[in-house]
Amino acid sequence: MNKQPALDSGSFFRRSIFAAILLGIFIIHTVFSFNGLTSRTGIDQAQVAREVARGNGLTTQFVRPLSIQQMTENGKVLNLEQMPETFHSPLNILIYAGALKMVGADDFEKHRMQENDKVYALDRVITVTCSIFFLIAIGINYLLISRIFDRKLASVVALVMALSEYMWQITAAGLPQMLMLTLFSTACYLTWRAVEAQEAERSPLLPALLSGVFFGLLALSHWMTLWIFIGYFIFAAIYFKPRAVIAGGLSLIIFLFIVGPLIFYWNQSGEALGTAFHTIHGAGNPSDTAMRQLSTTGFDVRGLLIRTAQTTLVQASNIHNYLGGLVLAPAFFIALAHPFKRSSIANFRWAILLMWILASVGMAIYGLENDFSDPNQLHILFAPLMCAYGLAMLSIIWSRCPLSQQPGLIGNLHFAIILLVSSGPLMIHLKSLSQNKPNSLSVDGVHAYALNGLLNKITDERDIIVSDQPWAVAWYADRHAIWQPQTLDDLVAIETLAEKTNPIAGLHTSSEAYRNQDIRTTLYNNRDLTPLAYTSWISYLTQDTNAGNLSNNKQVAPLVDPNSGRYPYRASLHGLFEPSTYFSRTPITLQQ
């Protein structure tokens, strides 16, 4: 009789500790330190997902003026209460929709905030979903890196990922990056299997084409990742054999994945590339400008090269943060010069490099803010693999040190130091929690209760609101919200279009119009509606409701003047630090 292998108690103990660490950090970031979603893109995708969960299909309550113009120019029926979603890729939204449906989020009243609530319950559902994908991504990268190098190095990378405060902050943003990391890591796992097969003189056809399936799913998570696929396609068409079959198969696979959304966008907006393509007009600057204009100009390349160069420099100077703060991830570029003995390891790094270069080009063209949680941030997908190559280089150097021959901690001192440094930001975060600092009532200028509890109650479910914070109004207040345009003429044009079906009910202003901006930037972004942006501040600071109306201003007076404005009735939703005001067309009453 064959004896069963004895249980490796040491291995079981280490895995148990790792699982406990993961669970503990997961609970900390989703329960104790979570203040709400921090990304407006994450908030926007969440509100679209709720519409899907309600059975309304891919529709959005956040209306961009550019979307209105696209539909009117192409002869589409405009219904501001049933606007198609043509900006975001659909996959992450559909996953959020499933999670929200499971908790009954399609019923707004079931999750309404109370006055003492500091976090909207559905925000937590979104961040838990993101965190679960992050945990899955850690597991996939462990399997991948253990095949490329060994289990010890894979374990260190998994721990570095788990201890990365930057990555956990991205899960709190509500962005699709963690789903993308899972799909990209799976695609890379299959690519590595194809590389192994090629080196062993076996057919790489099946894993190479299967990786194309996951790159297709990745594209449905964020259209920017098509740049990554282009890099993979070039590598696969050159490296794998039979070249023509693999290149043709990958082309067919990616076409089958993207043709459906392209047809949907064409049918809904009249443009196959939807609304998001026009963010290229704001590359290197906030793309808000293009989205808030009631016009669809032709492809504008003026200044595109200089903006692309500027964004390239931003990427180069912030590469460590963009790579999730994973220590030694940037050392991947040094590892390119190392002659690895195994040709599969040496060749696979060129696939990583090619995909990263093409992704960087895409980010440079479409813009990337100096923020590791930017929605267009694709560097984070490469961080685990780059970190693995960097650690491999460090291990090679360490092996030449006499201390490396010592057993236990001394022999693995280089890994211990890396883990200690990686955990620094997380330790600082835990220290701030230990000081019992209260959760902020507002996150990045969004006061959830002011919208969820107050604005929702003083408006009707059919009301359409023009707001400088429409993603938040759509998600927290569950109201149709049009992004405040940059000019009074565009606002009047939108009002005229709305009059045909359902007139604009009111204007909502918040700190979004000027937060973290100097006066010149605020003037540029809001043009002749700039006085409206400061109305709440002036009114609150002077404690004079009339002072905030700026009734002598020719642009604002026709809008909010108590005597002659189109929206003469006012409700203050929040106070000094994040002033928020609602101007209504009709007298304001509190709905029960």
UniProtKB/TrEMBL annotation:
Main localization is membrane
Q: Could you tell me the EC number(s) of this protein? A: 2.4.-.-
Q: How does it sit in the membrane?
A: Multi-pass membrane protein
For this UniProt entry, the molecular function terms from Gene Ontology, in alphabetical order, are: glycosyltransferase activity
The regions listed as transmembrane in this protein's record are 12-32, 125-145, 212-238, 245-266, 319-338, 350-368, 380-398, 410-430
- Alphabetically list the UniProt keywords: Cell membrane, Glycosyltransferase, Membrane, Transferase, Transmembrane, Transmembrane helix
Give the residues annotated as coiled coil.
none
Subcellular locations according to the entry: Cell membrane
Tell me what this protein is called.
Answer: ArnT family glycosyltransferase
Which organism's genome codes for this protein?
Rubritalea tangerina
